[in-house]
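User: I'll paste a sequence; please echo it back and then give the predicted structure.

Assistant: Echoing your sequence first, then the prediction.
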Amino acid sequence: MQTSTSQTSTSSVSSIRYAALILGLLFLSLGLAGFMPGFVTPSETFTSEPGFGYIFGVFPTNYFHNAIGVLVGVWGIAAFTSLSGAIVFNRIFAILYAAGAILGLLPFANTLFGLTPLFGNNIWLNALTAAIAFYFGFVKSAEIAMPSSSNAQPSA
């Protein structure tokens, strides 16, 4: 019994950490791609916003959005180095990116009040990655925090 519990714990710890790493690598890649003109399709409508375009022709972006992606990516990669860092990263990521998906649905807030585009395909990307981070930050981390009933010791 003890080995299956420790294997589950080890597996959960690894998956939580790797989720932070994968999300970090994804957002670092998207953030860096947004700064490279070859990966950004200019907007068909004129805009005076610096750096506005579509990464891979799909995700609306601007320089501020790219910088956030790079920072979140570096944070996710750094969070991979410890379990507690990965849990905190996944939890905060889940909350912020779920909020971003919701704001992207609201016409008055879908540009984060003029700072960065949250509309279009960013909505489903933010919602999907928030759901992944939520699972690993809240659900999987609860599995390792709860002691198994078979290992519980009666108190005197």
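The chain has a mean pLDDT of 90. Helices lie at 2-34, 63-79, 83-105, 121-145.
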